[in-house]
Structures are given as C-alpha cells and as structure tokens.
Amino acid sequence: MRGRENKNMLEYKIENQKYQKLADEFLASSNILAVLKKYGDVEFSGAYPAKLMMHGDVDIKVARDKVFSQEEIFNIFKDIYFNAEFKSYFIMGDWNDPRLGNEFPNGRYIGLKTKIDNETWKFDIWFVSKVEMERLEKEKPPIANIRLSSGQRETILKFKKHRKDKRLKMTGQQIYDLVLQGAKYIKELESLN
After folding, report:
1. Phi/psi of residue 89, nearest 5 degrees
2. Digit-coded pLDDT (tens) for 33-66
3. I want to staple 127 with a disulfide (CB 3.0 to 4.6 A). Which of 6, 68, 138, 176 is the partner?
4. CA-CA distance, 164 to 160, in Å (whole number)?
C-alpha cells in the first residue's frame, strides 16, 4: 500500500511541476503582466505561488491605494483585450454575491481564459485597494505564506487531483482550509460536496 501511495505522490508532484512550468512560460510570453503593472502592484495568490497547481488556474490581484471604479475596469479590460492574447474575456459588473468580502475580495473582477497545452486555463484577476489586500491577508493568510509540512502539501495535491478527476464543486481555498484543519483522507474531502 505504501509503495502505491508513494507512486501516486510522485505523479501528483510531477503534474504540479508541469502546471507550474506551463504557467511560468505563459506568463513570460504573454503581455498580461506588463498590462496589469500599469494599474497597480501585481501579486499572485492561490495555487500558483504556493506551487500547488493541479490544473490551469492562476489567481492575480492588482492593488493600489485608491479603489478601482467600474469605468476604470472597463478601460483596463479594453487594454487587456487589445494587448494580451486570450480566447475568452469576462468582466464582472455589479456582483451582489454574499461571498464578496469573505471568500472573494471586495473589489472588481476580470476573468480570462486561454488554451495552453490543449487545456482551457483560467486567469482570475481581482482589482483591489491596498487596504482590502491587507485585510484579506490578515484574515486569511495566503496559502503561499503558510509553512506547510510535506504531508500537508501532498494531501492538498491529492485532494486537488481527486477534485479534478471527480469534477467536484469546491474551491482551492476550501481544500486548503480542510487540510489545515487536519484532514488527510478523500472521504473528508467528499464530505464538503
């Protein structure tokens, strides 16, 4: 049994490394970061900076002192459209979601999709004030800033792989929270669904 678990963990780590490399290459070759840096400080969050990727999903925050207006987001959206190559563009207008300010930042959102290595990748970009960024990091430190044990890292990768394979509807943050609370087994993950 232990040999099979080690083999699975090696496969998860290889898959994570593949996604990290693809993300690095795309970000280096696309113009998205150059565009975003015109509007504020760019920071990655979630799986990409934590090196916990099991699918094509990159979360980015753009922060500045002043709150972004909807009109500014339309202008940024236009800048991205004309200067960075994506296949799908989504802008969130008045979003009255109860998760805003809890699971998601109080800010403006642009979603982008593209094909990388024959897979659809999603880039979630949040435009927030620096005050909101500080609040978020204080209330829920980014997973990349948490010192994870190798066991916790392996469990997160295992859970993310299971979520992907079974098409479970849950966020990466839910997985991180579950593992940080001590979960180790797939049945604990499935209890969220």
Report:
1. -130, 135
2. 999 999 999 999 999 999 999 999 999 999 999 9
3. 68
4. 6
Nearest to 32 by CA among 105, 114, 92: 114
d(CA 159, CA 67): 36
Predicted TM-score (pTM) above 0.85: yes
Q: Per-residue b/e over 153-192, b at no fewer than 16 CB within 10 Å?
A: bbbbbbbbbebeeeebeeebebbbebbeeebeeeeebeeb
User: What are 67's two structure tokens?
Assistant: 């709150």
> Nearest-CA neighbor of 104 among 65, 144, 61, 150?
61
Task: Collect all residues with Cβ–Cβ distance below 8 Å to 127 and sequence separation of at least 6.
Answer: 39, 40, 61, 62, 63, 68, 72, 73, 76, 107, 108, 109, 110
Interstrand relation of 88-92 and 108-116 (parallel, antiparallel or unpaired): antiparallel
SS3 (DSSP) at 98:
coil
Longest CA pairwise span in the chain (Å)? 57
Residue 90's identity, in one-letter code, is F
Tell me the average pLDDT of the chain: 90
Q: Which value, to the nearest 10 degrees, does the dihedral of the CA atoms of residues 92, 93, 95, 99 take?
A: 40
